[in-house]
Amino acid sequence: MTKGVQTNLGAADLFSAANLVSLGRVVLAPIILLLLAAETREALYAAFAIACMAGVSDIADGYLARRQGSASGYGRYVDGACDAIFNLAVFLGFLATGWMPVLLFTLVYFAEIVVPYLGAFSKQIGHPFDVRWSAKVKTTVHPIAQIVLIGSALVGSGVTPDPLIAAFAFGVAVIASIAYVVDHAAYAIRHVAISDRAA
To answer: For position 92, what pLDDT does the model report?
Structure first.
């Protein structure tokens, strides 16, 4: 058994309180996308509130899982999938409004596509990913960057963020995504080398 992960899982584990909190972010995803695309100040206030709610829920689901002793393989994948879906919706909203350049959007979501494949490969060679430091950094940085960007747009009288703040927030988000890929790729490559030496 993998340390800290339950292996005998059922429907009750899938629909635990922690996972239901995570799934709430999937419900919020299309709403925040539409709000951002509306490009009105009223919609931005609502989007800001939703972004804050999503950030709090990402903390709450982990807390609930640990408190209730329901941390599981399901929870890890549900939380990660819900994060990816919500963040995709927000960044698509930023893309639709012209806040986020296509290149930066591509770099951020390159990580979301590549790392799961690296994870499947690493598991295939007998070294599944543990919870990597880069994943924790990315899941912390992305929500903060989103909240800062929307908040920056609300500080002024218009509906666009301050250019310097936007450049900084997007830059940090992209760096976190690149670190996420490099860290997981290095882990997989390192264990391929170990496996080759052991063969």
So the answer is: 96
pTM: 0.84
DSSP designation for 159? S
pLDDT digit string, tens, across residues 8-20: 445 556 677 878 8
Instruction: Say yes or no to pLDDT of 96 above 60.
Output: yes
Q: Is 91 within 8 Å of 108 (Cβ atoms)? A: yes
Percentage helix, strand, coil, to 5, in the chain? 80, 0, 20
- What is the biggest distance separating any 2 CA atoms in the chain, rounded to whole angstroms? 65
Domains of the chain are: 11-198 (1.20.120.1760)
CB atoms within 10 A of CB 110: 15
**What is the C-alpha separation between 71 and 81, in angstroms, rounded?**
16
Residue 78, pLDDT > 90, answer: no
Please, what is the Cα angle at 71 between 30 and 144, to 5 degrees? 45
Tokens representing 70 are: 């329901």
Q: How many CA atoms lie within 13 A of 21 on its CB side?
A: 18
